[in-house]
Write a structure and sequence with these properties.
elongated, about 270 residues, about 0% strand, mainly alpha
Length: about 270
């Protein structure tokens, strides 16, 4: 993989100008694309951009890392091309745009503002989650005040915005603020999950499940108490299904008790 990308980089323009860089990316994606993989992810990622090439994410990451390194002395110019690259009609362009932001380590406030501009263009879960990994979570890890906005998004009419709120919070594993403050945010994350337990959108329900599992992994006692408290409530079918899935991260003893109580409380 690396050798193929090194060979492609031999034709990289000396300056990151929009037209020449977009032509380079189109040629690179065409060379690295895999028809069988593209057909597979079209099934796995409903809503995937029609013109996509089928380049695997590890190859996109490697290509972008080397691109950022090659233009490290011209990164301000490259950074100005993030949105023009994002606006192209393939998943590969969108992911490279996000990876430029991530590997270029753009400032948290700039990354957050960029995310706000890009979120309305999200059409599938793959791009949604990569945006969280590349922009919103790194920003939140540096500035916990942004959490207020995530809580507001729980009530958004856009299910992608609701998913962004959850995924951003779910993967906040290494914040730079104090442990006590980080724990308080995780308590707020669980409240966000509570607000979305009945969400009818499958992409949001999956994000709720994932988020609860993540909190169980990093703050087991906190999440366990939260889950067992739900047993005292009149839960919808959607909520019960989500909690049942999330219970997979409980200990064997806790999970057995939790599921037994589910059978009793209907």
């Amino acid at each position: 993989m690396t050798k193929r990308i090194e060979e492609l980089l031999e034709s990289l323009p000396k300056r990151p100008e929009e037209d020449s860089l977009l032509k380079f990316l189109d040629a690179a994606f065409n060379h690295l694309g895999d028809k069988d993989y593209r057909e597979m992810i079209q099934t796995a990622v409903p809503g995937m951009e029609e013109g996509s090439y089928g380049v695997r994410v590890p190859e996109l990451r490697t290509l972008t890392k080397k691109l950022v390194n090659a233009y490290k002395d011209q990164f301000e110019i490259l950074r100005s091309l993030i949105e023009p690259i994002w606006s192209q009609p393939t998943r590969e362009h969108k992911q490279v745009a996000l990876f430029i932001s991530f590997y270029g380590k753009i400032p948290a406030d700039e990354g957050w503002e960029l995310a706000l501009r890009l979120i309305p263009d999200i059409q599938n879960w793959e791009v949604c989650d990569q945006l969280c990994l590349s922009l919103t979570t790194p920003a939140l890890a540096q500035d916990p005040r942004l959490f207020d906005t995530l809580e507001e998004w729980v009530g958004s009419a856009s299910y992608w915005r609701r998913r962004v709120a959850l995924v951003t919070a779910a993967i906040l594993r290494k914040p730079i603020f104090p442990a006590k403050e980080a724990a308080a945010l995780d308590q707020r994350v669980l409240q966000m999950c509570l607000g979305l337990l009945d969400d009818p959108e499958p992409y949001v329900a999956k994000a709720v499940d994932w988020t609860i599992r993540e909190i169980l992994k990093r703050r087991y006692d906190m999440a366990r108490v939260w889950m067992f408290t739900r047993l005292q409530e009149d839960l919808s079918r959607t909520a019960r299904s989500t909690l049942r899935k999330a219970s997979a991260k409980l200990t064997d003893t806790d999970r057995r008790y939790f599921l037994e109580q589910f059978k009793l409380i209907r």
